[in-house]
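## retry 2 of 3
previous attempt timed out at serialization; input unchanged, resubmitting
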Amino acid sequence: MRLRFVLSQCFQGLRANLAMAVSVMLVTFVSLTFVGAAVLVQMQIANMKDDWYDAVEVSVFLCPESSSVPTCASGEVSDEQASEVLGVLESEALSPYVQEVYTETKEEAHEAFQDQFGEQDWASRVSADQMQMSYRVSLHDPEQYQVVADEVSGRPGVESVVDQRAILEPLFLVLNRVTALAAGLAGVMTLTAVLLITTTIRLSAMSRSKETSIMRLVGASNFFIQLPFMLEGAIAALAGAALAISGLWLAANYLIEGWLAESFVWVNFVGTGDVWTIAPLLVGIGILLAAVSSLVSLSRYTKV
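## retry succeeded, writing output
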């Protein structure tokens, strides 16, 4: 009987303030969509780092025939200079950092170049003699790049040392900034949702002040009086959370898995499974929004 009364009061309040309830639902939907997007972007960054950081290498490019770098003043790298650089990379001092050293000859570099750009007309005019020999160094810990670079940089015959992570860092920087932007927008929209939920509950409580006074006179507890109003905010917030989860699932299913994953098969994208992983978080945030808003409103208008 009591549960039926509480539910009837709850739905009566939602009908009376339908426009505000829909506004709460939509604002919660937008705010939680931004929250979910920010979390998914961070999960994507983590996936890419796990997949790519283990595969990146340090490339030690040796001097070609013509180079303006001071270490290449004597011309193309000699066999003695190449052997000396290889000896440093394979030395015992660097063994804690270097996992494997692979030698890429000019012919192998030319073959890789043609595989990548062979369809271009200008690429066919590039010969193997124009390529440069290099050492590809796999590290135990990619973060220790500078240790290896300091040992071989500036040696005769070494034109440059390139950390492939430097190619990836701008991408991760952009993704992190997207995350920050999404988190900032989520914060603004979440504050807006709290204010709207607070206003909705306040209007509902004010419109039924006589009923709550009567309930208090007949001995109803504060919790029993407050519960219908709390449920109103919770239902609207949870409906917004459900919309946010649905929107993120559709985006993951059709945009990411249905398009990006098929176009860029070498990238481990987040998917619908990750959306279900963060769904409890979004629901929890929706419940928290409703709880905070209810406490702010009800402490004044139902005299907790």
